[in-house]
């Protein structure tokens, strides 16, 4: 008999819409799981805010999702993972998967020369969370991080293959490539949309680690271990909650999600 | 005898730190006025949020500043000016100067061929507020607007004279320059920091209108008309309230303000 938890949804949250790339990877890897997404679009971005503020906002989101009776929480935001993942784990009784731990795990598995590059927002880089995550698994690995504050707005502008974006990426990658890395972690949920351009500029000798895919793998393994994967083979239920619905939200959201965005509701925290 | 209002501060507010360029222009134009600045740094940027959310946030800020007993309010944020200036005027008893009306007034005074370009955030452009402001003063003028979502992050990255910024500006200016404008309004408080680069790319035949300077002129005129300019010649009192103090705030803030940032306090709305 399946666990009574099995049919409950997975809760995924982010400061905005970037977490939809993680949601997309989950839908592809686990096509029968119900998902509730929460994006704090009224207060995005978190990457430039202080730790105390991010913790407070994250706590409000977690409380909302726990009221939706989720069976597992995915922190689909690198900034929140970097500064608040441990506090969130201490607060809830369900398993919590975060993008940084998943990405770090995957990077350690992939690297052959123990030299790992990470590109991310300034707050994620300053938190040093990827380096901590990598060193917990492989004390010998070296981690070279680069803050890339312009990549999020470039993705949201839709300049996914634009000379400005290419020049910006070249500028940001120069110092990390000079360190002889063989693995590059895309440490922000917006970056999967730049994967083709990043792959070209990094060169074929460097393996890209997409944290969204890493998260989906880890969620699948966790559900299976705990016996709480959904055994039903029905069309899953997807719901999206946001704190604001700005201009172009539907367009940009669907670009991230790779499918149409239905059952969208605006809520206040 | 001076009005009892005269020694009260001017209240200046913005969604973040961009309004510090307006504050700087006020300090230069009116060196004896006390100023209270409010920046909603926990929820910045507003330029990508919905009208209802922006109105609600602006109302909270105005209530806070009125409690500080300001004698005049300056909306130093183009997005708030575009969507909420009339509601704010209806709500308070003090004069309200907004960047858009000030910039539009200045542009109409400066143009000789009645062809005015405006660069701004997407929300400001979509609000059509500059065009309305210009047409209220000169029904014959043509206004060509261009949304420039990448310029704010470029300024905050400090890439004020960087090839990426130059390429981005060229891309954004191309369509407005093609319209034969003779005047270009910098319709975002971040843009004064790009003035040298914008002047080069626009060319010497185009006059740049800096809304921060326009606001300072209009505030000076209003204080004088109402007889509420501060007659004291003492060192003025400057206070800064923000809803978050993120990484690098001091550095970035001082770059905008052009002086050291003292008496900074974090508050919750």
From TrEMBL, chains A, B:
It is an enzyme of class 5 (isomerase). PANTHER family: GLUTAMATE RACEMASE. InterPro entries: Asp/Glu/hydantoin_racemase, Asp/Glu_race, Asp/Glu_racemase_AS_2, Glu_race. Pathway: Cell wall biogenesis; peptidoglycan biosynthesis. One of its GO terms (molecular function) is glutamate racemase activity. Its EC number is 5.1.1.3. It catalyses: L-glutamate = D-glutamate. Keywords: Cell shape, Cell wall biogenesis/degradation, Isomerase, Peptidoglycan synthesis. Substrate binds at residues 14-15, 46-47, 78-79, 189-190. Belongs to the aspartate/glutamate racemases family. Provides the (R)-glutamate required for cell wall biosynthesis. Pfam families: Asp_Glu_race. The keyword Cell cycle does not apply. GO terms for biological process: cell wall organization; peptidoglycan biosynthetic process; regulation of cell shape. HAMAP family: Glu_racemase (MF_00258). This is Glutamate racemase. The active site is at residues 77, 188.
């Amino acid at each position: 008999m399946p666990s009574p938890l099995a049919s409950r949804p997975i809760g995924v949250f982010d400061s905005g819409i970037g977490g939809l790339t993680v949601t997309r990877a989950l839908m592809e890897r686990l096509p029968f799981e119900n998902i509730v997404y929460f994006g704090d679009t009224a207060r995005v971005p978190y990457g430039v805010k202080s730790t105390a503020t991010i913790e407070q906002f994250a706590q409000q989101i977690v409380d909302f999702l726990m009221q939706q009776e989720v069976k597992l929480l995915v922190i689909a935001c690198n900034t929140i993972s970097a500064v608040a993942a441990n506090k969130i784990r201490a607060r809830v009784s369900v398993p919590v998967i975060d993008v940084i731990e998943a990405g770090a795990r995957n990077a350690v598995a992939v690297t052959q020369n123990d030299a790992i590059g990470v590109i991310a927002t300034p707050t994620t880089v300053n938190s040093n969370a990827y380096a901590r995550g990598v060193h917990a698994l492989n004390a010998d690995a070296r981690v070279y991080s680069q803050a890339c504050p312009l990549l999020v707005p470039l993705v949201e502008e839709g300049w996914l293959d634009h000379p400005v974006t290419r020049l910006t990426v070249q500028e940001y990658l120069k110092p990390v490539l000079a360190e002889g890395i063989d693995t590059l972690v895309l440490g922000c949920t917006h970056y999967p949309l730049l994967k083709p351009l990043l792959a070209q500029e990094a060169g074929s000798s460097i393996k890209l680690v997409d944290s969204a895919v890493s998260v989906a793998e880890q969620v699948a393994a966790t559900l299976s271990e705990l016996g709480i994967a959904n055994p039903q083979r029905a069309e899953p239920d997807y719901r999206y909650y946001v704190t604001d619905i700005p201009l172009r939200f539907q367009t940009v959201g669907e670009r991230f999600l790779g499918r149409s965005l239905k059952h969208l509701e605006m809520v206040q925290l």
